[in-house]
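Q: Structure for this?
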Amino acid sequence: MTIDWSWISGHTDDLTTLTVSHLQAALSAVLLGLLISLPLAVVAHRVRPLRGFLLGLSNVLFTIPSIAVFVLLLPVSGLTRTTTVIGLTIYTLVVLLRNTVEGLDSVPTRTKEAAKAMGTRPLRTLLTVEFPLALPVIMAGVRIATVMSISLVSVATYIGDGGLGQLFTDGFQRNFPTPVIVGVVLTLLLAVVADALLVAVQYVLTPWTRRRA
Amino acid sequence: MIQFDAVHKLFPNGTTAVHDLSLALPEGGVTVLVGSSGCGKTTTLRMINRMVEPTSGTIRVGGKDVQEQDAAELRRSIGYVIQQSGLFPHRTVLDNIATVPLLLGWGRRKARARAAELLETVGLAPEAGRRYPHQLSGGQQQRVGVARALAADPPVLLMDEPFGAVDPVVRTQLQDELLRLQKELSKTIVFVTHDIDEAVRLGDRIAIFRTGGHLIQCAEPAELLARPADDFVADFLGAERGLKLLSLRTLADVPQGAVPEGGTWTLVLDEARKPLHWASKDAELPVRPLQDTDSLLSALNESVASPTGLIARVDAAGVLTGVSSRDDIHEHANRAHTEVVAA
C-alpha cells in the first residue's frame, strides 16, 4: 500500500472540513450525553429504587448495534446531523451515567454532613461539594465517552454523515487506499488530542488532587 | 441559653436514642456530654442544630424554638466541629474556614480576611491557609475544624468528639488551646466525648448519659466526682475518682519556699535559672518543673517521684520561683477533700 501524497495536498480543504465536522459530531454527542446524564445520575444517586432501572436502561441501549440505531432514527430525524448526534449520544450515556453515579457515591458522607451542618442547602451542596468531589470519576467517564464517540462517528457514513468516515467509503469504492489511511490517522489523532485536552482540563479543575502529601 | 424540654428521640428502627430529656445549659460555659457509645449523647448534640429532629419535646437556643427556625439558617448561627474534622477536601484551608461567612453573604474578600484572622487564633501559620486539608496533620486539621466553626462568631459551639482521632499528646495540646480560646471568647460550648478525663478537663458542667438515652447526672466536675448520683456514674468516673478531684485543683495556693541547702540532693539550674535536674554526688535524676496552673495531682505525682520530695516551681517562662514540699501538697489535697467530699 502506497500513499499518494499529492492526493493529500490536493484535498487539504476537504480534509479540514471533514475533521471539523467529525469533531463537532463527537463533541455534541458528549455534551448532550452529559446534559442528560448529570440530572439522571443525581436522581439515580438519591432515589435508590430508580438506580438499577436507569443504569440497566443505559446498558440495554448500549447493546443495540450502532447501525440499527441510525436505521431506527431515520423515520424520526431523517438523513441529518441530528440523527448522527442522537445515535452517538445514546452510546455515551452508558459510561457518563454510570461514572457520574459512581462519582456521586464516592463523596464521603462525612463531607456531605459537614456541608449540611454548616448550613449549606441541598442544591448548593450538590453543585459546590458533591459535583466537584465527583469530578475525577465523572471526567474518567467523559474521556471514555469522547474517545468512543470520535471512533463511532464514522458509522454515520451509512446515513450520509460520518465526518472522516466518508474517507473510508470513498477509498473502498475506488479501491484507493490513501483516503482510508488518512482517515484512520486523523481519527486517531483527534482521539489522542481530545483525550490529552481532557486530562489538562481535569488537572486545572481539580487542584486539590495534585501534590499528594 | 440552650434548653431541652421533655425531648424524646425514637429512631425508625425502634431504639430510643434520647429518653425524656430536660436540661438547661447555661450561657458561656462548657457542658460536656459523656457516656458510652449508644447512650444518646451525639443525638442530643445533633438535635440542637436540627441535624436530627426530636420525636417530641422542644429545644430552645437563646429562647427560640429551633423547630420554628429555618434549618439552614439555624445551622449557620451555630458553630459545629465534627469528628475527624470533616473538612472539605477540595477547598483550601482558608476557603474551608470561610464556609459559613460565604453562606451568610459576606463576600469573598471579607470572608477570606476573617478566615486568615482565625488561622492565627487557632495557632496555625498563614501559609497553611493556601494548603489543602490532606496536606495537614490530624491535629492541624482539627484546628482548622475549630476555626471553621468559629468563623461567623456564633454564640454556640457544638463539638462532636473533635479530638477523638488524634494522638494523646496532640489531644492534650488541642484541649489546652480550647481552654485558652474559651477564656477569650466565652462561647456556650456543648462538647461530646466518651473520655471522662477529657470531660473533667474541659467541662464547667458534665452530663452523664446511660444507654437508652437516659441523663443520669449533670453537675460541675468536682460535685460529680465527690458525689456521684449512683453506682453507674461512680463506675463511669473510674477507679481514680479521688485523684481526678485533685486534677481539678491548681497549685496556685500551695506555698513555696527557697531551695534548701546542704542536703544530699541539689537542684541544678542553668544560667537562666531554669531547673535542669536533681544531682547528688554520684547520681542525676530528672526534674519536671511545675507552674501555678498545673494541677495538684501532677504536683503530688511529681513530689512522690522527686528524690527530695520537693517540687520545683517555675513561672510561665520556666524560671525557678521556689520549691514546695510534699507536706504542703498533702495539706492542700486534704483541703480539697474537706471542702468538697466531706462537706
